[in-house]
Amino acid sequence: MQRKKKTIFPPGFSTGINKLPIGVVTKADAETADIPKAIHQLKRVISKGPIVITSAEENRGLDIIRDLVKCKSIKEMKEYAESCDSEDITFNETLYK
Q1: What's the pLDDT band for 16 if we cut at 50, 70, 90?
Q2: Exposed, middle or buried, 31 (CB in 10 Å: 0-12/13-18/19+)?
Q3: How far apart are CA 70 and CA 13, in angstroms?
């Protein structure tokens, strides 16, 4: 199974979409998963919003995504991320960080 090593989206891409962004790192259970690099790439694309680490095989992060899609604002997403007792979610607030 091959993993993509680069992103095709330009920096700040999510700011041009009129929807609440959720960054998702998939296949975190894979032996070749480079989670820190995936998070770094998502931070370049999502200037403000949650980033969730997931694995369908381990049922990891899926409940977090289900909760996030119910949020009505970035502020609500941030509050959820801060109150969530999980290492599988982080909230990005700075482009290029």
Answers
A1: low
A2: exposed
A3: 22
